[in-house]
Amino acid sequence: MAETHFEPVGRLRVQVSPAHKFGTDAFLLADFAAPRRRDTVCDLGTGCGIVALCWYRREETAPARVDCVDIQPAAIGQLTATLEENAGVLAGRIVPHLADLKALALPAGGYDLVTCNPPYKGAGAGILSETDSDRLARHETACTIADIAAAAARLLKYGGRLCVCQRPERLADVMEALRRAGIEPKRLRFVHQRPDRAPWLFLLEGRRGGKPFLSVEATLIVEGADGSFSREMQRIYGLYRPESE
Prior knowledge:
This protein has helices at about 25-35, 50-55, 75-85, 85-90, 130-140, 145-155, 170-180, 230-235, and strands at about 5-10, 10-15, 40-45, 65-70, 95-100, 110-115, 155-165, 185-190, 200-210, 215, 220. It has about 240 residues and is α/β, with parallel strands linked by helices.
């Protein structure tokens, strides 16, 4: 596959390309979602699979299985290459699916957790990206937040969790879409690049069939005033592990 290479992520080597790579938001979402070891998970719009792969950096954070869904063949091709590269760790634990999340053939009610790092720009918002891969990743051209919520509602067990990340200006849209799909927003956390800046991201967890009650967690700070990673960000990236772990 042209223009691809492998990058180390913990004990894994992940194939990336200019079209399908990863950023800070994927690590934040993976950490926020924190699946249990017995959980069956579905990652929608998986790209190179980085959210799922983050959980397998360490055996103690690995769920039972993750089904990774993407509509783009190149993304699924990269994830397949990553699985082959790390077969000793990942064999049978991550399963790629080339599919449209609006028409999935995965088992209804079969998942404890669904995750999605969705397109950040709503339909008709902003100038469309030049490449097909960027348009699909950044703009709601192939799916909307309502489509994601509806897919998650079908996939999740009663009481199962949907975890997403999104830009703060989309918070009302996301909460409305989740509620319309029967997924109650339960846990919210804002992410600031530095303590003196406005949030650039939020992390939201909803529960299928949950009762209304939203817990707003402490702000996550990526960098200190000096520009170095915060202690929590070091932990998320795997650069620091408390002695208690």
